[in-house]
Amino acid sequence: MATMKVKGRQIAVICKDQEDYICITDIARYKNSDRTDDLIRNWLRNRNTIEFLGIWELLNNPGFKPVEFDGFKKQAGLNSFTVTPRQWIEKTNAIGLISKPGRYGGTYAHKDIAFEFASWISVEFKLYLIKEFQRLKEVEHKQLGWDIKRNLAKINYRIHTDAIRANLIPKELTRQQVNRVYATEADVLNMALFGRTAKQWRDSNDDKKGNIRDYADVSQLVCLSNLENLNALFINEGMPQTERLTKLNKIAIQQMRLLTENVHIKKLESGRK
């Protein structure tokens, strides 16, 4: 669950089925923090609201029940008409609203619907909400780019360890001996790219958590991903470790010169910061 701060109010955002839902209970607090449920029910009583919700569901929800929707539409606007979010969801099989119980509960609405509700509460608040939501999406997009690079390095690390297992580990070794081979080969890459082993980095950075690769920048992670693939290839070809280290170091120097001048890499790195 993510949160946005709009006009001094914390607004929760959740993701369901790859769609964003904004907490309209939080939005209602901007108008009256003591009567959020009443505000939402009053909004739902409005004929224009029912028509908007029904049309949205017809466009986005194959399981929506149009007959039940017609029943709501006929009653909407009458003094005797009342409906809660849960009643609307259960009777029409709607997906545009979500009613969540519990500590972090409340009524959530698909962003299209949430913006409509915000407009009913305050046009000014709606504009600030849209602006902050767009900023949140930009931050998530930049973070996604960073995560892709980090995961790419992890995937290639698996390729690398598989090559070690297939070519460098003799039969019947103990687990400690196997791990020692993996660590040694990991340090081939660390030396080629960072100029130090994992232990050397830890000894000089005992105040930091994680390992040397957790503190790599985007250019280094891209280069590391390439080196892991190349080292796996060199291992499969039977190239000695010392020769591989020398070759990988030269490749790392060449790639880092190119990567540090790459415009797209610079954008990813600035987004991370």
Number of strands: 5
Please, what is the average pLDDT? 83
Global shape: elongated
Structural class: alpha+beta
User: What percent of the residues sit in helical stretches (DSSP H or I)?
Assistant: 55-70%
Q: Radius of gyration, Cα only, in angstroms?
A: 28 Å
Count of individual domains: 2
Q: How many DSSP helices?
A: 12
Query: What can be said about the biggest beta sheet?
Result: 5 strands, antiparallel
Biggest sheet strand order reads 1-2-3-5-4
Order of helices and strands: EEEHHHHHEEHHHHHHH
> What amount of the residues lies in strands?
5-15%
Terminal CA distance: 22 Å
Q: Which residue ranges are poorly predicted, with pLDDT under 50 across at least 5 consecutive positions?
A: none
Task: Summarize the topology.
Blueprint: E1 2-6, E2 9-16, E3 19-23, H1 24-31, H2 36-45, H3 47-60, H4 66-75, H5 85-92, E4 97-100, E5 106-110, H6 111-121, H7 123-167, H8 175-194, H9 198-204, H10 218-236, H11 241-259, H12 263-272
Antiparallel strand pairs: 1-2, 2-3, 3-5, 4-5
Helix pairs in contact: 1-2, 1-6, 3-4, 6-7, 7-10, 7-12, 8-11, 10-11
Give keywords.
273 residues, elongated, 5-stranded antiparallel β-sheet, alpha+beta
Any overview of this molecule?
There is one protein chain. The chain is built from twelve helices and five strands. With 273 residues, it is of the alpha+beta class. The protein folds into two domains: 2-121, no CATH class; 137-272, no CATH class. A five-stranded antiparallel sheet has the order 1-2-3-5-4. A hairpin with a 2-residue loop joins strand 2 and strand 3 (19-23). Helix 1 (24-31) packs across helix 2 and helix 3 runs antiparallel to helix 4 (66-75). The relative contact order is 0.09.
